[in-house]
Amino acid sequence: MSEKSFPQGFLWGGATAANQCEGAYNVDGRGLANVDVMPHGPERWAVGMGDRKMLSFEDGYYYPAQTGIDMYHHYKEDITLFAEMGFKTYRLSIAWTRIFPHGDEIEPNEAGLRFYEDLFRECKKHGIEPLVTITHFDCPIHLIKEYGGWRSRKLIEFYKRLVTVLFTRYKGLVKYWLTFNEINMILHLPFMGAGLVFSEGENKQAVEYLAAHHELVASAWATKIAHEIDSKIMIGCMLAAGTYYPYSCRPEDVREAQICNQDNYFFVDVQSRGAYPHYALKKLERLGINIGITEEDRAILAENTVDFISFSYYSTRCVAGAGSEVENTVGNAFIGTKNPYLKETQWGWAVDPLGFRITLNDMYDRYQKPLFVVENGLGAQDVVEEDGSVNDDYRIQYLRDHIAAMRDAVIEDGVELLGYTTWGPIDLVSAGTGEMSKRYGFIYVDRDDAGAGTLARSKKKSFAWYKKVIASNGADLG
Q: What is the rounded average pLDDT of the residues 240-261?
């Protein structure tokens, strides 16, 4: 093994989400979900925030999740391309409404179960280990209309039914599971994160924390159920990560960064340590929010902590305390202070490879559990040359710098890391903007922001580069 290579068995791959790639929103009995009705265009943000009620398809809007990149009908072709790159793992998500179209049925939809079984077997055929997110922002529209989304404790029972079906059906096919994607996104895009739509005058913060508590309890139940069905299953949580920097060494800035880091980590504190940290309980007390923790909740959380911690990393964040006159920026739904030392992407996200190493160390120091990087990548506008090629050297450079920083965290710092899946190994719909033009993939998909295109797949320059990285187990980043 090279001194610069990752540990043997390191899981290289890529990550997608059902609602951003599958399409086929009304095929084989699938029901409608919150992620389906988020339109492309200026109203997408208001819908994602839960401020603009949109629980069905309305005239005059384009809904990119309806077709995505039609991976539902292309998955064999796509997995073959992933295998050609040498993927050891492929992270994907289950569309809840393929399994339970309304979310509260007693019996699951066999066509949906069979689709994912076929997909997992296709992965296994190519030697690829599925890494499956149970809920990647999906919440059945029926559960939103009938129960108010995750504000209702009843969703815990529906989720338990879902995971019991999944763990039983796919026993032996799937080893690694994630309960909720970017669980902290509830506080930033609550409709997308938990199916929350707010009425006028409602205490949004109280509803968000209540929904978060229900998801945390559901996550612990999933861990319990998984280990009872199959002791070999590994359950992970998933966080939208990125360490907060103080804007300066002014104590007010340092304190603000500490508070922001706590606000972000509290979800994983519960999932990894088994109890609400004191700072979170004090915050809820100050805000006058009662999330209705029961003794059963406390026991379930304490006895069923996750086996590993997964996270997305795109950038660090920077914040200033009161009294600072600073310029704000937005990256991945997180508003913060513009960091004058960092360059930004076309979409205003700070580029910080060293921050990746810092974040890895911060999380491993805090939890001392295996980590798994399940999203990292660069969204950029690609140009297709006359010969059909896409020379995405900027993507190669971004990933090269980040993988090098990750390698330092593992080899130099001793961080225990299970694997690394880039976000969007194939172009797909952006969760934040609904655009196709914000491309992440090693594989180009002929599709534009208005939904036009042939859906043909083709390899970018980065395809061969990532294949080389995987073949060398991270030793060759040239």
A: 96
